[in-house]
Write a structure and sequence with these properties.
By secondary structure, this protein is an alpha+beta fold. The radius of gyration is 20 Å and the shape is globular. The relative contact order is 0.12. It has one domain. The strands form five sheets. Strands 1-9-8-5-2-10-13-14-15-17 form a ten-stranded mixed sheet, with helices on both faces. Helix 4 runs parallel beside helix 5.
Length: 351
C-alpha cells in the first residue's frame, strides 16, 4: 500500500515525529509493532479507553487565548498514554467528518493504540452509528488486555437523555442519547471498572441507573462542567499499585480535577463519584421522583434547562438515600446571593 500522512492531524505530528513514526501511513490503519517493539510476554495490567468528542463547538478562551477543548483533551490523553508503561491506552478522537464528492466519508475520526507507553498502531475511521459501535469494533479487534480491568473516559458535551437527539454537528442524521451510550459502553468490555463522564449534567438518576451493571463506578458532574474538563493522570496510580480499589482511583481523579477547577473558574464546581456496587441497590428509588419532576416541568428541551440538586426538590422530600456517593463541591462565586448559595450538593442532578 502506498504511504502518506495526510490523515494525521497537525496537532499530533510533533508527537509522532518525536518517536520516529512520521514515515508514512496507510489509509485506515497501520501496525507499528515492527518499528516499536513492545513486551508481549505478559498481558497489560490495565486498559484505558479515551473517547473525545470533537464534532461540535468546543472553543473556549483562557486569559484571551483561544483553546479547542477536544484537542486539549487529546493532548492530555497522549501524556497519560506515554506514561502507562504497564498498560494499554486507546484514544479515539471523534472529529467532524467531511464528505468526498459530497457523498463518500473521508474517515476523519482518528484512533491511536499505545502499549507499554509506546504508540503501536493508529488509523482513521467513520462512525457506524451515532454512538460508539465503530470505536468498540476497533478496540475489540486490537486490545491485548481482555481479562484486565478497563477504565473508560468520555469527554464531550452533555450526553442528552431525550431519545434520538442530534449530537454530532457534521452528521445530523446520526442520533445519540444516554440510552445508546450505556448500550454501546458494554460493547467494549465486561470488566469496566470506572466510567468517567467529563460532560455537563450527566450525574443524574437516569444516567447512573442506565450504567448500573455495566461499570463498577462512575465519575460525573450533576451540574455544569467547564470545558477544560477533568484531569485523568490519577489513573496512573495503577502503574505502582495495580490492585488499587476503583473508588480510590476515582476519588484521586475527582479531587485533582476539583482542586484545579475551583481555582480556575468562578462558577460552581460539582464532581461526584458514584460507587455503583452500593448505589445500584437504591437508584430505582431516585429514578421515579426524577421522572415526576421532569414530567411536571414545562420545559421540554432538557439540554437547555439549568440542573437542580434533586434533593432540593419536593419530589425527594421523603428520600434520604445518598450512600455510595462522594461529592466534591464549591459554590458559585457570582450570580447567586451569598446567603442563598448552597453549602453542599447531594451529587444528584435533576433537569
Amino acid at each position: 500500500m502506498s504511504g502518506h500522512t495526510s490523515f494525521i492531524s497537525s496537532k499530533i505530528l510533533w508527537l509522532l515525529a518525536g518517536i520516529g513514526l512520521v514515515s508514512g501511513a496507510c489509509t485506515g490503519s497501520r501496525s507499528l509493532n515492527k518499528q516499536v517493539p513492545v513486551n508481549k510476554d505478559t498481558a497489560p495490567d490495565y486498559s484505558l479507553i479515551y473517547v473525545i468528542h470533537g464534532d461540535g463547538d468546543y472553543l473556549y478562551h483562557d486569559d484571551g487565548k483561544a483553546i479547542k477543548a477536544d484537542e486539549h483533551a487529546v493532548k492530555k490523553a497522549y501524556s497519560v498514554a506515554l506514561k502507562a508503561h504497564h498498560g494499554e491506552v486507546f484514544i479515539f478522537h471523534q472529529k467532524p467528518e467531511r464528505k468526498a464528492a459530497l457523498f463518500f466519508p473521508k474517515k476523519d475520526r482518528e484512533w491511536f493504540h499505545y502499549r507499554n507507553g509506546k504508540l503501536v498502531d493508529y488509523g482513521t475511521y467513520s462512525p457506524q452509528n451515532g454512538g460508539l459501535q465503530a470505536e468498540a469494533r476497533i478496540y475489540s479487534a486490537r486490545t491485548e488486555a481482555r481479562n484486565a480491568d478497563t477504565y473508560f473516559f468520555y469527554f464531550g458535551h452533555e450526553i442528552p437523555q431525550a431519545p434520538n437527539s442530534v449530537y454530532h454537528r457534521s452528521a445530523s442524521d446520526l442520533y445519540y442519547d444516554s440510552r445508546l451510550f450505556a448500550h454501546d459502553l458494554s460493547l467494549f468490555s465486561n470488566n469496566i471498572a470506572l466510567t468517567t463522564l467529563s460532560t455537563c449534567n450527566n450525574g443524574t438518576p437516569s444516567m447512573i441507573r442506565s450504567l448500573s451493571g455495566k461499570t463498577e463506578a462512575v465519575i460525573a458532574s450533576p451540574t455544569e462542567l467547564h470545558l477544560s474538563y477533568l484531569d485523568t493522570e490519577g489513573i496512573l496510580m495503577l502503574e505502582n499499585a495495580p490492585d488499587t480499589d476503583v473508588i480510590a482511583l476515582a476519588d484521586t481523579i475527582s479531587m485533582t480535577s476539583y482542586q484545579r477547577l475551583s481555582q480556575e473558574v468562578a462558577t460552581a464546581v460539582t464532581i461526584a463519584v458514584y460507587d455503583l456496587r452500593v448505589v445500584s441497590e437504591y437508584v430505582d428509588e431516585l429514578y421515579e421522583p426524577y421522572l415526576e419532576y421532569k414530567n411536571s416541568t414545562s420545559v421540554t428541551n432538557s439540554r437547555i434547562t439549568t440542573a437542580r440538586d434533586c434533593f432540593s426538590l419536593p419530589e425527594y422530600a421523603n428520600i434520604d438515600q445518598t450512600e455510595g456517593v462522594q461529592v466534591f463541591y464549591s459554590a458559585p462565586q457570582f450570580g447567586v446571593k451569598k446567603g442563598e448559595r448552597a453549602a453542599t450538593h447531594s451529587g444528584w442532578g435533576c433537569k
